[in-house]
Amino acid sequence: MMVVLLGATTLVLVAVAPWVLSAAAGGKNLKSPQKVEVDIIDDNFILRWNRSDESVGNVTFSFDYQKTGMDNWIKLSGCQNITSTKCNFSSLKLNVYEEIKLRIRAEKENTSSWYEVDSFTPFRKAQIGPPEVHLEAEDKAIVIHISPGTKDSVMWALDGLSFTYSLVIWKNSSGVEERIENIYSRHKIYKLSPETTYCLKVKAALLTSWKIGVYSPVHCIKTTVENELPPPENIEVSVQNQNYVLKWDYTYANMTFQVQWLQNPGNHLYKWKQIPDCENVKTTQCVFPQNVFQKGIYLLRVQASDGNNTSFWSEEIKFDTEIQAFLLPPVFNIRSLSDSFHIYIGAPKQSGNTPVIQDYPLIYEIIFWENTSNAERKIIEKKTDVTVPNLKPLTVYCVKARAHTMDEKLNKSSVFSDAVCEKTKPGNTSKIWLIVGICIALFALPFVIYAAKVFLRCINYVFFPSLKPSSSIDEPLKNLLLSTSEEQIEKCFIIENISTIATVEETNQTDEDHKKYSSQTSQDSGNYSNEDESESKTSEELQQDFV
Predict the structure, then answer these.
(1) At residue 286, what are phi and psi to the nearest 5 degrees?
(2) CA separation for the pair 512, 505 (Å, rounded)
(3) 279-303: per-residue pLDDT in tens?
(4) Of all residues in the chain, what percent are helix, strand and coil, respectively (each to 5)?
């Protein structure tokens, strides 16, 4: 009985031994980490993950990475033998626009299998961190200076000037929030109450990449005591000749004013500058040349003083040189045809320093009319090569044109150009008829020549008749005046025998003698007989004579 029990115990020990040895050697096989997350904020790269088995202690974790096009894996610096479930690999020099892949495994006496993280592009995965905020208080306004949270950021190196910001502001005593969207890195909030504490928070955005950051910490500031001198109000800019004219309103008289400008309000590196000829101005307007400003967007502000006291700066107005600029009328050339004009439109030449609108798509309004009429017709075209159809040949038409911007925000129109008059060319119909007439004349020329000859012969025959010698001579003349078909008909006779031929020859000899006799006698008498006995005989009688 004891032997049996001992044998059973031995078998159990033998069966359990591998499990016990495995536990003693480091426990069961390690499982791979799970739920790995990659958090990128600005230039900070953070990895987080979950342990697969919390009961197993003294486990470390290591990461490898692989770039696109690589076959081998590289150890990820800063993320080797990590005991926690978080590591930072911001020191790794990466191309933020290049796709990479990560993998992680758990390690103790043995190692787990690798857990691969889906490949990603750092720039696409990155978030915008909270911006830095600096506040300045006035009596009724707060000036806000904002800069990206990571200066000299590798992640946003190409987008540093493209950031826009939004903020939420509220009175500290009430908590009622007001949201202000799409402000620049420098912004001023007006119409606040003096000696009042306001709180705000700001977040950044890259609208071109559809990225919105996280809010900054809350910042609070108290406005100052109300100033004795109010700031100037209702600032406006207009253009006169080659100058800008800046006007404003002010409550008190006998004041001195100065005007400053800031270029590109979206860039915090620019500083306010004094406008020439707008320092210590005694009136409520200032005139300065247009060449002071290059093409761009500016902020303008005005300050008042009476010698001892100075007001805060006025509300800043945005000044766009292109919006203030002129849209000049187009120049064009005309090529006239018989029933249309071809108009070629060109860009006008800029004269002096006058700012003109450029690089905007334009449409052209073309008006034309007959020089002798006031009835106008209009064509709207986007092209610079325009055809004006349905015109009359050999008619003077006048044309004028003006340009319009297609940008709804700009909404500018030029004045009309000077009218240009041009005469259309002869129509094609007269040319066609002339060609047809020439062709007909060339085709009918032989018939005309022949008819003329026949006509001249008739004239000669009627008015200048020749002396008629005899009926035998008159016969060819008759044949000449007959039709062609009749001329081709010959008289045929049936000759039965040789004797008949002799008789005919004798007859012909007799006729020739008769012709000679008649020709001789005609000179004496001057009278001719219109009757020919041989002509009056029928063919049958003539045959009988031959017989």
Answers:
(1) -145, 135
(2) 10
(3) 889 999 998 887 777 777 888 999 9
(4) 25, 35, 40
